[in-house]
Amino acid sequence: MLNFTFQNPTKIFFGKGSIENLKAVLSKDQKIMMVTGKGSIKKNGGYDQIVKALEGYDMIEFWGIEPNPRYEMCIKAVEKAKSEKVDFLLAAGGGSALDATKFIAAAMKWGSGDPWDILSKGAKIESAVPLGCVLTLPATGSEMNAGAVITRESTKEKFAFISEHIYPKFSILDPETTFTLPERQTINGIVDAYVHVLEQYITYNVNAPLQDRQAEAILMTLIEEGPKVKADPINYDARANIMWCAAQALNGTINCGVPQDWATHMIGHELTAFFGIDHAQSLAIVLPGLWQHQREQKKEKLVHYAHRVWGISDLSPEEMVDVAIRKTVTFFESIGIRTRLKDYGIKLSDCRAIVERIEKRGSKMGEHRSIGAREVGEILALCE
Ligand code: NZQ
Ligand code: ZN
Questions:
Q1: What pLDDT is stored for residue 112 in this prediction?
Q2: Pocket test for ligand 1, best of 62, 177, 185 (most atoms within 8 A of CB)
Q3: Statement: the pTM of the whole predicted model exceeds 0.85
Q4: Nearest to residue 243, comparing CAs of 170, 168, 189, 194?
Q5: Domain containing 22: what range?
Q6: Same-domain check for residues 103 and 197
Q7: pLDDT given at position 3
Q8: Which residue, among 235, 227, 184, 249, has the nearest Cα to 331 in the 3D structure?
Q9: What local confidence, expressed as pLDDT, does residue 368 receive?
Q10: Is residue 5 in some structural domain?
């Protein structure tokens, strides 16, 4: 096992009616700004419960954060929060509202320079305005992690940043608020969480059987619960299980002491930045091609995954790898997400700009840092 440091400071309130806990964690002395999307919070009961819990509190609202949150919109929120002297940010919605809130929290404390540097240059932040969250879409794990992903529309760039200062102080996860999710978002959430696990699990063996089994537990739960929630969107138990899986998939637990990949995400972010497809759709396209390309490097873990998660044995290692890839694609397609570039009207020739951009940046991805521009081009060709 590799060395690691682990600390997760986010307090979780989970379950029916848990939004009322806002009273316990926020103070009437704080000036709060709720940051949210384009209105789903009013349809899923979240907004009414927030307003009820925070009656008598000093709260203003910022609406309009879009999916794949835009830097340009975040800057408007920073200006409003600064002029209103906000000292606590409350995200309400999905990963986009929360990621935007994390960036706003960091940018509010950023000196006179351009806060875009936090994203584009990885400039380190020294502090952030404290934030919390009412999550209504299980997918990203942002509710319990130190990362955020922001898109700059004018340059078609999508960057992540990570800082311990942007962990939510608390996250409230009430599965009932997810009943209203459109099927596409429910599926996106399952696939995003599933791929988060794979990015931390399908690398190479470092003799970390606990982390392997934790990863397998999340994968197998998603495989079981996904079809249930598709068949019955108001199945509380299935919604709850998926919600806790998504948080566990990216809260820093399963990556303790193991190598991590994240190349699927990095290539996927480019597909979203250039073509506007959903985050999970980009992952469903890239992952199978990436595994095909990296099958030698990942062989041991792919064989292990085929055996442990899909119950396959008595085949050659090469056949096991094929089964691992095929079973994953079948799972994605069976719950309703397409897995090829052409399914989204994207031509391979349209992806040349992605390869050129990665070449220019000189990025090296994957657990061995062996995937550069040439390899990304080859991987995308396998995704056609
Ligand atoms: O804008 P509103 O009206 O709120 O509608 C949203 C949005 O249209 C809607 N929605 C949310 N909760 C709902 C609901 N509709 C009905 N009922 C509910 N309960 O769903 C739509 C999508 O929401 P969004 O927040 O964009 O989705 P998601 O949570 O999948 O977040 C995706 C973003 O997170 C980033 C992605 O790149 C993408 O920008 N990621 C963040 C990560 C992190 N911080 O750790 C890791 C991930 O890998 C990912 O990159
Ligand atoms: Zn993701």
A1: 83
A2: 185
A3: yes
A4: 189
A5: 11-177
A6: no
A7: 98
A8: 227
A9: 98
A10: no
